[in-house]
Write a structure and sequence with these properties.
Rossmann fold; 3 domains; seven-stranded mixed beta sheet; 11 helices; 19 strands; ADP-ribose pyrophosphatase YjhB (NUDIX family); Nuc_deoxyri_tr2; NUDIX_hydrolase-like_dom_sf
Length: 383
């Protein structure tokens, strides 16, 4: 590796190998001069990064310019840029476009690929031409924008903060995902099993959900597996509200019906539940109130443990609770609604249904059926 290392800053120029560990990494995206008569803006950006970096560990700066001003291998250059863009925690776009000397055609393409990644910041001098379209999508995607280079760098570093130490394959997990508890819960479980993350690439992020294509060394089998995507989201709390009947099949179960696009007929029948900022029990009580209108005291909930919901695809878990409801509560539930968080597009309808009908008519998915069965069949404490 020929990277330039000064104190806590490591500069990695085009086609040079990145270091094996860092606390944060940034990529300086934007037009590159193709003439020695035109000065590059990147030395000024590097100077700003040196001046402003306050993290505890190493900051790596990817500079897509040849250390000696040569570009002998176009394909290798493109491959290096793609790799290092994906390794970066922040992609700093600075676009001092000059149609004669730095038209920034490649920058337009890179911006289109990265503007909605959650890792981009955008800056351009007020007089730079043909940036209106880029600025439009910066605003539409919530990308911070600045009118001078120093401010653009400052915004990127503010989002990075102190960074986080990562080594080897961990470097491929950007800070925006590394800092998420669902990712850390999954990753810590893998490490406890002795497995090693060799590489990763973010496939998607949508709201609280993310997908990560991972390359793992499987300790128990001494092999590498790299053909899977881990889907993650915050854990959920689910609650089985029930009224015992003469038999198990006669037991009344409170379901909520809600439109969900992946469902065969557009509507899912599920248990009241969801995720939230509190502890699992607090989330369970809040979701029951939100989706059914029933307010329960914490002492009424019985806890049944935690399991993954779809272990071959999603890393998130369901915390299962149950509560026996009264006949008066069932009457109120049957006549209530609709419920849900309308501002978030959620509309739920209460359905009180015997367990036997749930089984026979396949009203719920296998995971929900299993949670209901667990709550109904698990012996009560002391029984």
């Amino acid at each position: 590796m020929n990277a330039e290392i000064t104190a806590k800053i490591t500069i990695v120029y085009a086609r040079e190998e990145p270091p094996d560990h860092w606390a944060a990494a940034v990529f300086l995206a934007g037009p590159t001069p193709r003439s020695a008569d035109v000065p590059s803006w990147r030395p000024e950006a590097v100077a700003e990064l040196r001046h402003r970096w306050r993290g505890d560990g190493r900051l790596v700066v990817f500079v897509p310019e040849d250390r000696h001003g040569r570009y002998p291998d176009y394909d290798a250059q493109v491959g290096w840029e793609e790799r290092c863009l994906h390794l970066s925690d922040e992609v700093i776009f600075w676009v001092p476009r000059d149609l004669a000397t730095m038209p920034a055609f490649t920058t337009n393409v890179e911006w289109g690929m990265w503007h909605d990644s959650g890792r981009a910041v955008f800056g351009a001098p007020p007089g730079a031409p043909r940036n209106r379209y880029l600025l439009h999508y910066a605003a539409a995607s919530g990308v911070p924008a600045a009118a001078d280079l120093a401010e653009t760098v400052a915004v990127a570093l503010a989002r990075i903060g102190a960074g986080a130490a990562r080594r080897g394959g961990e470097r491929a997990v950007p800070l925006l995902l590394w800092r998420e508890r669902p990712f850390q819960d999954w990753y810590m479980a893998q490490r406890r099993a002795g497995n090693e993350l060799l590489g990763a690439r973010v496939v998607f992020r949508f709201g609280v959900c993310w997908g990560l294509h991972v390359r793992m060394r499987v300790a128990a089998e001494d092999r590498v597996k790299d053909n899977e995507v881990v889907i993650g989201r915050p854990d959920v709390s689910a609650v089985v509200l029930h009224r015992p009947g003469r038999t198990l099949d006669d037991t009344e179960i409170v379901l909520v019906r809600e439109f969900r696009s992946p469902c065969a007929d557009g509507f899912v029948h599920e248990l009241p539940g969801g995720s939230g900022p509190g502890r699992a029990l607090e989330n369970a009580l809040a979701e029951v109130a939100e989706e059914t209108g029933l307010v329960l005291a914490p002492a009424r909930l019985r806890e049944h443990g935690t399991r993954q919901v779809n272990a071959t695809m999603s890393a998130h878990r369901a915390h299962l609770f149950s509560a026996e409801v009264t006949e008066d509560e069932l009457v109120r539930l049957r006549g209530s609604g609709p419920h849900g968080a309308a501002a978030e597009g959620e509309r739920t309808y209460v359905e009180v249904t015997p367990f036997g009908r749930i089984r026979r008519e396949r009203l719920v998915d296998w995971a929900t059926l299993g949670m209901i069965a667990e709550a109904l069949l698990e012996p009560a404490p002391g029984a």
